[in-house]
Amino acid sequence: MFFKYSKQIGSVLIAILVAGCGDGDSRSEPDLQITSASVQYSKKMIVTITGADLEQVNTASITKCSGLSLEPTSTSTQRNISCTVSGTGELSVELKDDAGSVLASKTFKVPEPRVKMSTSLGDIIVELNPTAAPVTVNNFLRYVSSGFYSDTLFHRVTGFVAQGGWLTTEPAIKAGTLAPISLESNNGLSNVRGSIGMARTTEANSATSQYYFNLLDNPGLNYVSDAQPGYAAFGMVVEGLNVLDAIGSVPIESKYGLSKVPVDNLILLSAEQVQ
User: Fold this and answer.
1) What one-character DSSP code corresponds to residue 40?
2) 130: phi > 0 → left, psi -120 to 50 → alpha, else beta; which?
3) Beta bridge partners of 39
4) How far apart are CA 190 and CA 187, in angstroms?
5) Among candidates 2, 49, 54, which has minimal Cα distance to 27?
6) What is the DSSP letter of 215?
7) DSSP-derived secondary structure for 138-163
8) Residue 242 in 3-state DSSP?
9) Pairwise CA distance, residues 11 & 92, whole Å
10) Span 114-273: which CATH code?
11) What's the confidence (pLDDT) of residue 77?
């Protein structure tokens, strides 16, 4: 048995060539099942292929999934293929024989990713938009998955935004660990009440870990032109808008060398991708 990897536009192929396979006779209704226990954007997906006609499968293609690899748990009666989901919407798996004929296919639904942000005032769930802002969403999810945001503070509450992702509860500066990202403010998303965006310096392509929530509609933060690039919104609060309102109304003061810091520490206890 050996494996060959190749790429085509719109899909990634992994050839599964089995030594001692059958004589190549096609079957009108091959006995093949395609299953997957979990399908989440940016997460590892394992596609399991089973059935009496497994030996007929020469190639398996999976759209919107990168880095295909045959898992070591595969056996003569089961193939487990892993990849990282890289798009939302319909994800298709297609099995072909050595003549290129489709033996079986299945479509999975990849929902928009959601992150649960548990704060000291309650939980907020944000739905992210990787289609409009893929670089920004992927950057944010990498910080989420690493646990970076656990026990960090909302260090700036201005009345129009609430900003976090920079100070720990000690307090101490917790600088972003990933490289700054390119600005995606011209993506069709607006800085409306309940949206989440990435904070940055005066340099357009400087966002790292700091995010902000829009407490009000803030059209002044939107993209205008390359000279006025604005700030990149990349998702919306879908649950816990009342918690966001509560965050926006906390008393603030100057401390830690900053202005407009909540008097009582307002903590992001954890952030977890839940969809």
Assistant:
1) -
2) alpha
3) none
4) 9
5) 54
6) S
7) HHHHHHHHHTTTTTEEEEEE-SSEEE
8) helix
9) 9
10) 2.40.100.10
11) 86
Domain ranges of the chain: 2-110, 114-273
Residue 73 has pLDDT above 90, yes or no: no
Identify the CA nearest to 167 among candidates 267, 253, 271.
267
Fold adopted by 2-110? Immunoglobulin-like (2.60.40)
Query: What 3-state DSSP class applies to 154?
Result: strand
Name the pTM for this structure.
Answer: 0.86
Torsion region of 60: left, alpha or beta (phi above 0 gives left; psi -120 to 50 gives alpha): beta
What is the model's pLDDT at position 74? Answer: 83
Q: How far is CA 33 from CA 4, 30, 49, 106, 254, in A?
A: 22, 9, 6, 9, 61
Q: For 163-187, what is each residue's pLDDT tens digit?
A: 999 999 888 999 899 999 999 999 9
> By C-alpha distance, which of 224, 247, 244, 228 is closest to 236?
244
φ, ψ dihedrals at 161, nearest 5°: -140, 160
Q: Is the pLDDT of residue 15 over 50?
A: no
Q: Residue 266: what residue type?
A: L
Helix (H/G/I), strand (E/B), else coil: 43 = coil
